[in-house]
Each structure stands twice: as C-alpha cells, then as structure tokens.
Amino acid sequence: MGIFDHIFKQPRWGVHPEDHKRPAADVSLRTLPPPARLYMPLHQHVGGAARPIVLVGQKVLKGQLLAEAQGNISAPIHAPVSGTVTAIGEVTAPHPSGLGFAAITLDSDFAGRWIETARVDDPFALDPAEIVRLTAAAGVVGLGGATFPAAVKFVLGKRLAVKSLIVNGGECEPYLSSDDRIMRDCADQVVDGARIVMHAIGAIEALVGIEDNKPEAIAAMRIAAAPFPEVKIRPVPARYPMGSDKQLIQTLTGKEVPADARAAEVGVLVHNVSTCAAVHKAVRLGQPLVERIVTINGGAVANPGNIFAPLGTLVEELLAFCGLRDTPSRLILGGPMMGTPLLHGRIPLVKGASGILAFDAREAIVPEAGPCIRCGGCTRACPMGLLPLEMATRIRAGDLDGAVGFHLTDCIACGCCAYVCPSHIPLVQYFSHAKGELSARERARLRTDAAKRLAEARIVRLEREAKEKAAIAARRKAERKAAKAAAAAATAAQPEGETA
Amino acid sequence: MNHSLDTPVAAPHTTTANSAGRVMASVMAALAPATLFGFWLYGWPAVYLWLITVGFAMLGEAFCLRLMGRQAAPVLFDGSAVLTGWLLAVSLPPWAPWWIGAFGGLFATVLGKQVFGGLGQNLFNPAMVARVALLISFPLQMTAWVAPLPLFSAGAPGIIDGLRITLKGVPAGFDGFASASLLGFAKTELSRGLDLLQSLLHAPAQAWYGSRAGSLGETAAWLIAGGGVAMMFLRVITWHIPFAMLAGIAVPAAILHAVDPARYLDAGTQLLSGGAMLGAFFIATDYVTSPNTPRGQLIFGAGCGLLTWVIRTWAGYPEGVAFAVLLMNSLTPIIDSYVKPRIYGRDRKGAALEPVK
C-alpha cells in the first residue's frame, strides 16, 4: 500500500489495536480428540431455544437431532458425537452472570458413528427453498458470533431481492484466527458455500472481504474462487471493526445501511466465511453443524492455535489440550474487543464461539479510570459517528433520555471508544448499562400499557353491562306495564261488552 | 488493578497504552525546545520565573486536592498542573517579578481549574484565565518586556543576579531593559497619530529566528510552531484548531493590510507576534476547553483567530490571544451542541437515511 493510499484511503473510523494473531494463526489446524462427556446447550442462537426430542438413556449417533427448532426464529441442535444421552439439565452459560441454561449431556462412545447423511451432488439444481430447508435442518447459524439462524436470513434476502452477498472474512478482532484458518485450509468449502448461499437468495455476485493482514487467506481464496468470476475476493484495510456488517458493507459497496434498517434493504446480505463453509457441509454433505474451528489464544496458553472441536466440549478441556503456561487471569469467549468474560472453564463450546482467550496477569490488567479530559479520541474512533463522551456524561448523571438524544441506540458496542480512551473510562460498560435500563424501562412501559388497556376495557365492559342490564330491566318493566295495561283493558272491555 | 476470574470485566479487554499523563508529557516535550531557547535568550530570571510559576501551579492543585481530602500525589503525577503552570510561564514577561508567577500559578489551578471540579471540568483555559487576571490586575508588570540578553553574553545577569532580578525587581538603569513588544509599539505609535509606515522604521529589532522582545512563547514563534507540528505527527492534536486560528488572524490582516498598510499590520507580523503561535498550537488546542468535533474545532479556531485580530487592531490592548481564547471557550458548549458528526445511516439532522438499493 502506497503512502497515498495510506493517508487517503484508510477509513477514518476505528482503531488499530495490536493484532496478536500470530503465531497462533500460522500453526496448522489441530483436531481435538472427542472428550468423554459433552454438554450441548439448547440455546446457542438468536431466537427461541430448541426443544429436546431425546430421552435420557437414549443412544444417539453423531449428527442425530437432539432438539428441534421452536418458533420462527430458532435452530435445531444435533449430537456432536455418537454415544448416550445421560442427562438433560443445566450448565453454566457463557455469560458474565454465570447463570445456568438448559443443555443435553452426552457421554461419547468414542466410535464417532455418523447418522445416514444425504449428499447432494448439484445443489444449484435444487429449488432455493430446498436449500433454506436443508440449512435450517442442519442448525446452521451465523458463526461470526451473531448466531442468527442462517436460513431465516436467506428467506429475508430472497424476499428483498438482494443482489450482492457479502462474505465476511474480516476477522478484525485481535487474537482470533479461526476464520483466517478456515479460508486457508478450507477455501474450496467457503467458496462453494458462498455460491450455494447466492443461489438460495438469488444474488448475482459475492464480495468476499478479507482484511489485508491475512495474505495467506487472500491467496488461498483467490485460487479457490478463480473458476467462479461471480465470487470476487476483495482485500480490505485491516482496521477494527472492519468485520462489523455495517462497516464492511460500506467499505465494499460504498452503501450505508440506514439507521433502524436491515442490510437487505440496501440490497446486500452478509454471511461469515465459517457460516458459508457450514452451509456447504449442510447442503452438499448433509452434515449438521456439530463441530467448529475455535482459536485458543492468549498469554496463558502454552501452545496457542486453532482447534477443530466438537460443540459442547468444555472450555477447560480445550485449554488443557493446548496447555496452560500459568493460571489464566481472565477467560474470554470471543475476541478481546467485544468478547464475554467467562467465570470458569466449565462452560461448553457453543456455535458462536470463534475463540477462547486465556489472558495472563499482564494482559488482564485493568487500568484505573480517570476523569474525561475531552480529548475527543472516542469521537474520532467511533465507526458510527457517535459522541461517546457526551453519552457517557449523560448516563453518569442518570439522564438516559439525554443519551438517547445522542443516538445511544445506534451504538454497536464495538469498544473502539473505550479502547482509545487515555483515561481508560469503561465507556462500553456505561452504554451497556444504559441500554439495559432502557430495555427494562420499555418492558415496564409495555406492561403498564397493557394493564392500563385492560383496566380501561374492564371499565367499558362494566359500563356496557350495566347499560345492557338497565335496558333489559327497562324493557321488562315496559313489557310488564304493557301486559298490565292490556289486562286492564281486557277487563275493562268485558263489562262493556256485557252491557252492549 | 487485576480482577479475579469471578469478577467479570466489561469488554473491551484490551486498551491503548496511552494515558492522560502521556498526553501531557507529549505536550511538554513539544513545548520544551521553545522554552529552552527562551531560557537562553532571557537568562536566569526567565528560568526562575518559570520554576516559580510551575511550582505555585502545582501547589495550588495540591492544596485543593488536600482540601477535598484526596491524595494529591497521583493527580499531580498526571502532569496537567505542571503544563498549566508552564503555559502560563511562557506567556509572561520573562523578567516579571516572582509574585507575578506565584499569583498566576495559584490563580490558574485554584480558580481556573479546581473550583470547577478539577481535570476535565473547567470551562475556561486555566493558564489564560490566570494571564488575563494578571494583565488586568498588574498591567505595568505584565507589559514590561525586555530585549533578549542571551545567557553568558556581556551584561547578562548570572545565577545570583538573576535571582535578585526575579525576587527584588530589575535594578534601576539596567541595560537592555524596557523594550516594547512589537504589537505594543505599533499600538502606542498609532495612538500617538503616527502611521505604521513611519513608526515601523524605528520598531524594536525583529529577527525571524526569534530575537525580539516578548514572552518566552512569543520570541520563539518558530520553535513553538515546530513543537505544534510535532504534536500533530504524534496525534496529540489535529490540524483543525491551529490552522483555523492562524487563518483567522492572517486572512483579515492580509486583506486590510492590502487596503491600508499605514493603519494595519501585515499578516506575517501578526502571525509571528504576540501569542499567536503559542495560542494556536498550545492554548486553543486544550482538549478540555475546545470543541471535540473537527468542524466544531474549525469554527472555534477561526473564532479565536478573528477575535485575536479584532482585539489587536481595534481594542485597547495590544495583544488579544488570551481574551479571544477565553471568549471562544465560553462558546465551546454551544458549538458542541450544534456541531455534531453525521451518524452512520443517518443524515446530518439525525433522521434515518432512505434505503438505496
């Protein structure tokens, strides 16, 4: 990249943290020997949790359906190994709260016997709806971390007639290299998966955005995509958060996704490279999503690298496989910019886990926060063009509406602001707190609105009933009166008749 | 601070090595060459005045922190009080008496900064608040400039003599004292009815490399500018405020000088005189008291420049940087509330964009 490009073509947003991707990214992929016991959570995706369809004690094969999707937005869960269902209970969720969530416990029989899988030789001869069905049945969700059910996105893309599929190979988070590895080692699968997705949504091109700090991945993908002119490999500047949908779409197409709108509304759909590879396996090989590549990295890891592991493996087993140099001072699921802290290692690997980081004491240091010196660094770094310092000042004072006035709701929580802050103010924490408060307030508002509506409806109903009762009473009274009058008239008429 | 595994820490889990202390240190490093050059030009009294001003600025800060029951040392360590005192010191007449520096230093950190709530809370630039307070209270001492008398040159005061000058005042009839700064000279002559075409022939000696009467920051205008450019390269400041402020001075100066050279000083003189360079690169760029969006900074800088030129040209004071910066400081919250960056996916007014397929 020339000096001109360097000065004028670099994005104006974002940050450039030290990437720490190598040497882990360059170590060849290792396969984890299946552990003796796995914990398959029922809720590894955005949407409704899956509903178990197996019984404790039941023998299952690898890839067999354990739990089916529930509701419009959901994904099924399959057995990552062959073995026996030993429990359906709770495990610790990969969440800072450390609360539990439902999971199916499997004991492996170490045979690794697959279910019967139906191979499709020419997926492009299939109806797009059939690809949607196969992808949904295989439990494929966004593997970049968003874990949105992939098939639901296909339907949306088809409906809105999306022209370009954007294949996200940005992987801008430091330390992580699972997408890098899948592009280097399985480029054919990624390209084939991308073409299948194009077919499913009716796109005419696929733009594969890869950060230029991954030259090996770019080279491998170029070779794999060479026979397919509609699949275009597009290196993009390495700048965090390039892997964020909105920023990647803007960099590759020049289009901006309007606020409160979906990417499909500007004619693009984004899928991660690993998701494309999973679609390839789901459609061509009929294999459900039961394994993934996960980066194990961080200063406390003795042999960092990428591991091909069954879902449901405990984090501590992954760490033990790579070896620990010392006790981790912090465990993170995902990357260091947006990852979730884990309370301990007895948490299962889930579909959206692209990396597990074990930080040593030096990496885990949290600098003490100081006062804001209004340097404006956060404003320059924010890829959304927000004013983090103004929002934080208002949230600190409890003025949530003031923060919303600065479009807090547009914040993508990428962490650029907190990263650059020389006073080390935990800005993202402020924003997450405020967003949580706002959604609690919204829920409370909906509840009171509903209660108010019901109360009003009751008053209306009682009034109506009272009126109806009154009307009936009045009618009956009138009827009785009329009857009495008629009777009186009859008795009065009779003597008259007698006299006549 | 290091947390154990069971106290979750919010993302991001990595952070810049930058810190407020490092920012202050960079600014001081950028200011150092001009200051050292000024020390050489004006000798020991300038060194003593600088020490006293910085020392009292720190004292003021420490006093307030102790009063609030807080530890003074960690806050002093961030360097902001040192920098405030330093900026004030380089804007003072180098041979001013010690109590000017002491009063100014205390005023800057106590009334200019800590009463507002400390670092990041003050509305006005503390160094300029102190400078204006001094200028209004002690106009005589604050406009007594000396011609440069470099260290070790004939007649320059030594270590002891220098201290005597700072503590007891300049002995009567001292060589080289009582020279006017160029802006002051021009203003006086104009008010006497002499136009610039005549008066400038007898103006105080000028040299582009800095041999002119003035404060430390005025004399070494080019070194100040060099330090400012270095700060841009270190990304401590951006170009917006300095560029806009210098343009705000130069553009009107150039136009009116072309119209009437007898009445208006030229742009070059305006830029190299007084606190223009110091103000543009070091004073107006103060994070706390300037807007934090690029467009806001351009407006702010242009306002500082234009007001400086207006005050110099038509107001009662020969120099206007401090007044101009304080006036624009008061507008910073307003600029910030009107000038905001465009948000991704929204137009400038904050409404969502129309989808474009």
Verbal overview:
The complex is a heterodimer of chains A (500) and B (357). By secondary structure, chain A is of the alpha/beta class. Chain A has a domain at 369-485: Fumarate Reductase Iron-sulfur Protein, Chain B, domain 2. In chain A, 38% of the residues lie in helices and 17% in strands. Chain A has helices at 3-8, 128-137, 150-159, 178-185, 187-201, 215-225, 245-253, 273-285, 315-322, 377-381, 388-396, 400-405, 416-420, 427-499, and strands spanning 30-31, 37-41, 51-52, 59-60, 65-68, 77-78, 83-92, 100-108, 164-169, 205-211, 231-236, 268-272, 291-297, 305-310, 330-333, 340-342, 355-359. The N and C termini of chain A lie far apart (126 Å). By secondary structure, chain B is mainly alpha-helical. Chain B is 58% helix and 0% strand. Chain B is built from 17 helices and no strands. Chain B has helices at residues 20-42, 44-67, 72-77, 80-89, 98-111, 126-137, 139-142, 159-168, 182-191, 196-199, 216-219, 221-233, 240-259, 267-272, 276-283, 294-314, 321-338. In chain B, helix 5 (98-111) packs across helix 6 and helix 12 (221-233) packs parallel to helix 15 (276-283). Chain B is globular and about 70 Å long. Chain B starts with 19 loop residues before the first helix and ends in a 19-residue tail after the last helix. The chains are: A alpha/beta (500), B mainly alpha (357). At the A-B interface, strand 15, strand 16, helix 13 and helix 14 of A face helix 1 of B.
- Class by alpha and beta content of chain A: alpha/beta
Give the strand content of chain A: 15-25%
Strand order of the biggest β-sheet of chain A: 1-14-13-17-15-16
Helix tally of chain A equals 14
DSSP strand count of chain A: 17
Biggest β-sheet description of chain B? none
- Report low-confidence residues of chain B grouped into runs of 5 or more: none
Share of helix of chain A, binned: 25-40%
**Structural class by sheet pairing and helices of chain B:** mainly alpha
Rg of Cα set of chain B: 22 Å
Distance between the termini of chain B: 49 Å
Indicate the proportion of strand residues of chain B.
Answer: under 5%
Report the strand count of chain B: 0
Contiguous uncertain segments of 5+ residues of chain A: none
Distance between the termini of chain A: 126 Å
Shape summary of chain B: globular
Oligomer: heterodimer
Mean pLDDT of chain A: 92
The biggest beta sheet of chain A is recorded as: 6 strands, mixed
- CATH topology name of the domain at 369-485 in chain A: Fumarate Reductase Iron-sulfur Protein, Chain B, domain 2
